[in-house]
């Protein structure tokens, strides 16, 4: 059975950045997604269309097709008093904030001094080219309920009460 829209696919994959560092991997068969439902990044999803169980592929996804490019205007200096006084602000900490269009974003503390906290609202993988080594483990038809919900159910998918 080939991968196409409205089918459930399980994969093993290793994801590396351009420095050949492993960013993420799943090799135990527990990763699955609903094809055509934007469950995974578009650049990877497109490459999987038409593949079937046993197929292996290497996919390079440009930042524009993954987590976007880095944008300098997402780096901002914020007065220290905007943050809770009882929290030690340290680089690498993450906070929820409002983006320029009012949407919820996660910002990461890039640096901090006595009066100013510099936060970076870029996704940690923005600007990073993603290199996937993927093996297709299985392909099946989605159930009507999965299609309605837009995600996979079962032991490795969403579990509802
Ligand atoms: Zn569901």
What does this 3D model show about the protein?
The relative contact order is 0.27. The protein is mainly β and 161 residues long. Helices cover 8% and strands 40% of the residues. The model has no long low-confidence stretch (mean pLDDT 91). It has helices at residues 42-48, 144-149, and strands spanning 7-16, 22-34, 56-61, 75-79, 94-98, 104-112, 116-120, 130-141. The longest helix has 7 residues, at 42-48. The chain has two helices and eight strands; from the N terminus they run ββαββββββα. The strands form two sheets. Strands 2-1-8-3 form a four-stranded antiparallel beta sheet. The two termini are 31 Å apart. Bound molecules: zinc ion (ZN). Zinc ion binds at residues 149, 151, 153, 158, 160.
Write out key terms for the chains shown.
161 residues, four-stranded antiparallel beta sheet, binds zinc ion
Short recap of the structure:
The chain has 161 residues and is mainly beta.
**Strand residues, percent:** 35-45%
Bound ligands, each once: zinc ion
Given the structure, what is the number of helices? 2
> Structural class per helix/strand content?
mainly beta
Q: Overall mean pLDDT score?
A: 91
Radius of gyration: 19 Å
Which stretches are poorly predicted, pLDDT < 50 over at least 5 residues? none
Distance between the termini: 31 Å
Strand order of the largest sheet: 2-1-8-3
Order of helices and strands: EEHEEEEEEH
């Amino acid at each position: 059975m080939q991968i196409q829209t409205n089918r459930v696919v399980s994969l093993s994959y290793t994801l590396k950045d351009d420095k050949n560092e492993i960013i993420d991997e799943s090799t135990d068969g527990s990763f699955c997604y609903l094809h055509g439902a934007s469950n995974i990044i578009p650049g990877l999803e497109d490459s999987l269309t038409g593949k079937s169980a046993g197929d292996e592929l290497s996919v390079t996804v440009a930042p524009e097709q993954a987590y976007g490019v880095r944008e300098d205007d997402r780096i901002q200096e914020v007065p220290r008093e905007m943050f809770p006084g009882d929290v030690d602000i340290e680089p690498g900490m993450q906070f929820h904030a409002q983006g320029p269009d009012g949407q919820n974003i996660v910002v990461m503390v890039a640096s901090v001094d006595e009066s100013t906290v510099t936060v970076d609202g870029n996704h940690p993988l923005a600007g990073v080219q993603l290199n996937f080594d993927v093996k297709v483990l299985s392909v099946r038809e989605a159930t009507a309920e999965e299609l309605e919900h837009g995600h996979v159910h079962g032991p490795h998918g969403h579990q509802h009460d």
